[in-house]
């Protein structure tokens, strides 16, 4: 079900799902995202129905033995709101068999609250520790987000470890 994307032509089929699902502040440009296919630890998975093409994508990082960092999870707009996203997320996390960490916006409006609620319904915990996402594109600033974790909330020491690994391996950001 989860097909690893390693070829540039398959990447070209899943990137539009990502681009339609995330604001520019939370997604690299196409060339920058495609370059990640060569990075150690980065895993991009496409999900498709028979021969209908890809309708969902999950970008994950294997940063440590004990957890997976979900950088992007998106379902094509025409397939949303039918429960498929939740099912895919549950299947992916069961298949991976590790703790999971992801970034979310601070829940300040209806959409961001719905997004946090979606992840909470699937076993994630919202952690209040202030977190700044390093820029995804040149010219952008740090973006205030929060980390959500599954299967449990985290203590500050674990938060600091996750943040440090994500900053260094995903963003190649070494400032603190």
Automatic annotation (TrEMBL):
InterPro entries: Acyl_CoA_acyltransferase (IPR016181), GNAT_dom (IPR000182)
Top-rank lineage group of the source organism: Bacteria
SUPFAM superfamilies the record matches: Acyl-CoA N-acyltransferases (Nat)
Pfam families with a match to the protein in the record: Acetyltransf_7
Species annotation: Anaerotignum lactatifermentans
Residue ranges of domain N-acetyltransferase in the record: 1-150
Listed name of the protein: GNAT family N-acetyltransferase
């Amino acid at each position: 079900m989860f097909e690893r994307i390693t070829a540039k032509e398959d990447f070209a089929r899943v990137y539009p799902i990502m681009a339609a699902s995330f604001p520019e502040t939370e997604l690299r440009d196409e060339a920058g995202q495609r370059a990640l296919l060569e990075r150690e630890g980065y895993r991009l998975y496409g999900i498709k129905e028979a021969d209908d093409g890809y309708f969902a994508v999950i970008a994950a990082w294997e940063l440590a033995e004990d957890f997976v960092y979900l950088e992007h999870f998106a379902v094509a707009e025409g397939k949303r709101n039918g429960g498929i996203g939740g099912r895919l997320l549950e299947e992916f996390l069961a298949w991976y068999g590790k703790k999971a960490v992801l970034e979310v916006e601070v829940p300040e409006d209806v959409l961001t609250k719905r997004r946090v609620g979606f992840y909470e319904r699937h076993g994630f915990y919202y952690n209040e520790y202030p977190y700044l996402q390093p820029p995804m594109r040149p010219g952008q600033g740090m973006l205030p987000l929060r980390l959500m974790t599954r299967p449990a909330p985290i203590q500050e020491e674990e938060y600091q470890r996750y943040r440090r690994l994500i900053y260094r391996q995903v963003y190649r950001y070494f400032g603190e």
